[in-house]
């Protein structure tokens, strides 16, 4: 027959000197509210010299043990429970020890101070500037590595990988020719429409021919082609090399004693160096043809007159200015695409992130260099 539960209690016995705090009854969750009030009432009525008597303690659970720790303090309760005169059971002692150790180790998490919006903005700007600087240094180092491998390859023609280079020329050049021709044809038509609309108010629609010729030979032909290659080819290079990096094929190539730069990067770079100037030439022709079609349909400028005006007003130097930028753009687009592929960490998410990064970086570099080149040629009078 089990005894009925006795509500827990604690009272200060002043018959002893020093006074003694006697704890008795069941300190369990069922009596938690009453025991909480009792603990609050007793708090401050005893001092460090008051002895503790736990021999009358009945049932004990975690809730009661936590109240005892709050009432007596973890260090004091631990000494009392471990005292030889204490008749607590081993289970109750272990429970008390676990609870007061947990409460002693627990600390309220310190809330981090809020950072002002201005500091956060400056922090993000600083991180962005640092990332741009780091990426620029990595790109310059990678460009130097590519040039070193190409220079070493000039002395050893047998190591040239002609077959992969031809395959990449087909992928980056021949397969891209239709989209480049269509895009530049349409842009040439749009430029001619805009030029005719603006120049008509000045009675100078004939100069639409010069507008189309100058814009495509110097800027639009190479710029549109480079942007298309940045979106089409740089992303393909990053995805191809990134997938190999994720599958540990790059490590296998190094294990075989082969150079990944010579094996994977140089054929792609050389292929784009060949393909982009040819695509640029195609883009110039397509853009001029698109402008010529609009001039023939809307401005009654015959093809023969269109070609005659081009020949008389536009010198060969404008064609050379546009074409000389193509190899530089090609080299940087291929280098950025391959470098981002080598940065892949090993997951599909990383492949996607670096593919996007290669496209963004390539387009940014192409536009910046084109603007710098335009200013340079303008100052030089070319």
From TrEMBL:
Family named by the database record: Belongs to the MlaE permease family.
The protein's name in its UniProt record: ABC transporter permease
UniProt-recorded Gene Ontology molecular function terms: phospholipid transporter activity
Protein localization: Cell inner membrane
Record's bilayer topology term: Multi-pass membrane protein
Principal location class: membrane
Keyword Membrane: yes
CC terms in the record's Gene Ontology section: ATP-binding cassette (ABC) transporter complex
Transmembrane regions listed in the UniProt entry: 137-155, 176-200, 220-242, 319-339, 359-378
Classification via InterPro entries: ABC_MlaE_roteobac, Permease_MalE
Keywords annotated in UniProt: Cell inner membrane, Cell membrane, Membrane, Transmembrane, Transmembrane helix
Nucleotidyltransferase in keyword set: no
Annotated NCBIfam families: MlaE family lipid ABC transporter permease subunit (TIGR00056)
């Amino acid at each position: 027959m089990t005894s009925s539960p006795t509500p827990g209690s604690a009272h200060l016995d002043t018959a002893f000197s020093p006074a003694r705090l006697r704890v008795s009854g069941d300190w369990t969750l069922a009596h938690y509210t009453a025991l909480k009030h009792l603990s609050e009432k007793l708090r401050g009525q005893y001092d460090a010299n008051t002895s503790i008597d736990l021999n009358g303690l009945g049932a004990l659970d975690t809730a009661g043990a936590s109240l005892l720790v709050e009432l007596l303090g973890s260090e004091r309760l631990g000494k009392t429970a471990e005292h030889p005169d204490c008749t607590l059971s081993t289970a109750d002692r272990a429970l008390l020890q676990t609870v007061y150790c947990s409460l002693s180790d627990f600390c309220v998490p310190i809330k981090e101070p809020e950072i002002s919006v201005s500091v956060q903005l400056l922090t993000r700007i600083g991180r962005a500037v640092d990332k741009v600087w780091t990426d620029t240094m990595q790109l310059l180092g990678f460009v130097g590595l590519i040039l070193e491998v190409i220079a070493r390859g000039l002395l050893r023609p047998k190591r040239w990988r002609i077959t992969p280079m031809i395959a990449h020329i087909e992928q980056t050049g021949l397969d891209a020719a239709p989209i480049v021709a269509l895009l530049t044809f349409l842009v040439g038509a749009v430029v001619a429409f805009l030029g005719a609309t603006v120049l008509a108010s000045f009675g100078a629609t004939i100069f639409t021919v010069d507008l189309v010729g100058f814009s495509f030979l110097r800027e639009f032909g190479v710029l549109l082609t480079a942007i298309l290659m940045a979106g089409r080819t740089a992303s393909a290079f990053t995805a191809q090399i990134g997938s190999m990096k994720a599958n540990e094929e790059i490590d296998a190539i190094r294990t075989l004693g082969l150079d990944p730069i010579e094996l994977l990067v140089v054929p792609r770079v050389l292929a784009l160096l060949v393909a982009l100037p040819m695509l640029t030439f195609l883009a110039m022709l397509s853009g001029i043809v698109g402008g010529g079609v609009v001039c023939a349909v809307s401005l009654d400028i015959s093809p023969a007159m269109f070609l005659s005006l081009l020949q008389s007003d536009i010198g060969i130097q404008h064609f050379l200015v546009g074409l000389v930028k193509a190899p530089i753009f090609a080299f940087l687009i291929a280098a950025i695409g391959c470098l981002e592929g080598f940065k892949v960490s090993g997951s599909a998410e990383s492949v996607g992130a670096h593919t996007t990064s290669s496209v963004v970086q390539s387009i940014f570099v192409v536009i910046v260099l084109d603007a710098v080149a335009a200013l340079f040629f303008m100052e030089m009078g070319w």
